[in-house]
Amino acid sequence: MHADGRQPGSLPPPRSPDARAPLSREMLAAAEAVTDLLAGHRLPDALAARTASLPPASRAPARDMAYRTVRRLGSLQALVALLNTRRPLPRMAALQLVALAQLLEPMRPPAIVVDQAVAAARSLSRGPGGGAASFLNATLRRFVREREALLAAIADDPVARFDHPDWWLERLREAYPDAWESIARAGAVQAPLVLRVNRRRTDPDAYAERLRAAGLGARRVGPEAFALDEATPVERVPGFAQGEVSVQDAGAQLAAHLLDLAPGQRVLDACAAPGGKACHALELADVDLTAIDLDPERCRRIEDNLARCGLPAGAGSVRVLAADAARPAGWWDGRPYDRILLDAPCSASGIVRRHPDVRWLRRRGDIATLAIQQLRLLEALWPLLGPNGKFLYVTCSVFPDEGEAVVQRFVRDRADAVRTPLEWVWPDGRGEPVAQLLPQSGPTREHDGFFYASLTKRQ
Ligand SMILES: C[S@@+](CC[C@H](N)C(=O)[O-])C[C@H]1O[C@@H](n2cnc3c(N)ncnc32)[C@H](O)[C@@H]1O
Predict the structure, then answer these.
(1) 97-123: per-residue pLDDT in tens?
(2) How many CB atoms are closer than 10 A to CB 314?
(3) Could you tell which of 42, 194, 283, 294 is best to mutate to test the pocket of ligand 1, judged by most ligand atoms within 8 Å of the CB?
């Protein structure tokens, strides 16, 4: 007889689709993803690989544990420096971080976290790193016992206090002597899910009703933007599969409006994948859009998003190309564009509320390299803009070296480029100039960090 009462040779009962793996297995998957991150891999890619063998119902909890760990990595690394007398092997070190993250923001009784982490460590100890379970047990129990004293001991360490690397904090301090702390604090908090209503398919006021009817609390944070009060899987968002809404931060939703679109315009979206701003542009106006991205895989995501949103819907058209925007000779048909959007590759320092791994993957030297690439793209694309045409330069960065400095450098020696001031009317009715948006979260302002500059071509 089997332990579950089955006769020898009989098959186990089919697993319920809602069945979860033990917490120890979920922790282990999260720890493996964190190990990958610490080795330089993006967290979403690491999680996709490391949670694939978990039952479907366990994937979101494992993801959540990994994200919680990465959000608090500065604090956690400061804590393990106090707790550890020797350096554990990488997977054990990551498991310790995952378990400490669970103890730091108590989601479940500490005894269960410690017990399950130790069970996970035992399964690791069968391979290299044997004997480490007792080390993990001792350090986690010490954290539970001495929590307040340990937290007090790391409180003055800026990396722990703000959960950002020290070089990043230095740069923020240099650029924003008065605001750097609030920027870092905002960056460490998880952002809400923000939706963009597709005006081709529904109206924002009508959609607000749909959200209410579905029991989802939300606030209006832009002309088409709603921030949900609670984390909600997209499958539960009304009309998502039908393309009535998409997920897009409210700060990113400025782009299509600031392009000042009109029917029939030729528009180039030079770095378009996965197509958030391109879809928004086509939802607002019947334009002829060329969407380019260097990465063919990501171009498929533009196609998928266009298809889901039912675009182009009116008299507009769209062409998606996998190409290098910095080398237009290979793809440009020679006809000038009325509008060019360059949403340039950047540090992503403005969107770390959503992508906390970015803080730990970027290196100090990346910013200068990115600034060179951004200027090169601007210079390569400027000749494609027609007379009186508008060029919108965008980054999702808060570092001025990738925003203001790039634009100033570009316009310095160029008589035909005129910087045009940008203004945005927020949902509270206040109109304000827009250039560097800093991440913030409030009743009517809820957005990531972006840089916007508009350049008009003199005739
Ligand atoms: C910030 S993302 C664009 C986001 C997109 N605009 C949206 O709203 O969904 C930058 C994109 O630039 C692409 N990229 C980087 N270098 C490029 C180049 N030389 N030519 C075209 N695309 C490039 C990257 O593959 C990436 O998809």
Answers:
(1) 999 999 998 889 999 999 999 999 998
(2) 13
(3) 294
If you search the block for the tokens 């009743």, which residue do you land on? 443
pLDDT digits (tens, 9 = 90+) for 224-243: 999 999 999 999 999 999 99
* Residues 52, 309: Cα–Cα separation, whole Å: 28
Q: What is the 355 CA–ligand 1 centroid distance (Å)?
A: 16
How far is ligand 1, taken at its centre, from the CA of residue 275, in Å? 9
Q: 350 CB less than 6 Å from ligand 1?
A: no
**How many CB atoms neighbour CB 185 within 10 A?**
14
Q: Going by CA atoms, what residue is nearest to atom 27 of ligand 1?
A: 273
Tell which atom from ligand 1 comes closest to the C-alpha of 395. Answer: 1
> For residue range 364-409, what is the model confidence (pLDDT) as tens digits?
999 999 999 999 999 999 999 999 999 999 999 999 999 999 999 9
Query: Please, are residues 33 and 51 in contact by the beta-carbon 8 Å criterion?
Result: yes
pLDDT at 199: 98
Between β-strands 266-269 and 337-343, what pairing exists: parallel, antiparallel or unpaired? parallel
**Atom 12 of ligand 1, nearest CA residue:** 271
- Kindly give, in sequence order, each residue whose CB lies less than 8 Å from that of residue 456, ignoring residues fewer than 6 positions away: 388, 389, 390, 391, 417, 418, 420
| 168 Cα to the center of ligand 1, angstroms | 23
Average pLDDT over residues 411-435: 95
What amino acid occupies position 431?
A: G
Q: What gap in Å lies between CA 90 and CA 137, rounded to an integer?
A: 17
User: How far does residue 346's CA lie from ligand 1's centre (Å)?
Assistant: 9
The DSSP 8-state label assigned to residue 236 in this structure reads G
pTM: 0.93
Q: Out of 271, 309, 346, 396, pick the active-site residue.
A: 396
Look at ligand 1, atom 13, and give the residue with the nearest C-alpha: 271
Whether 396 is catalytic is: yes
* Size (the chain), residues: 459
Helix (H, G, I), strand (E, B) or coil at 76: helix
Is the minimum distance from the CB of 284 to ligand 1 under 6 angstroms? Answer: no
Atom 15, ligand 1: residue with shortest CA distance: 345
- Residues 144, 115: contact at Cβ < 8 Å? no
Average pLDDT over residues 132-157: 96
Q: Compute the Cα dihedral for 87, 91, 94, 99 and give only its sign.
A: negative
Query: How many alpha carbons lie under 13 Å from residue 111 in its C-beta half-sphere?
Result: 0
Q: Determine contact, residues 410/417, Cβ cutoff 8 Å.
A: yes
State how far the Cα of 367 lies from the Cα of 399, in Å rounded to an integer.
8
Question: Ligand 1: which of 196, 293, 373 to mutate, judged by most atoms within 8 Å of the beta carbon?
Answer: 293
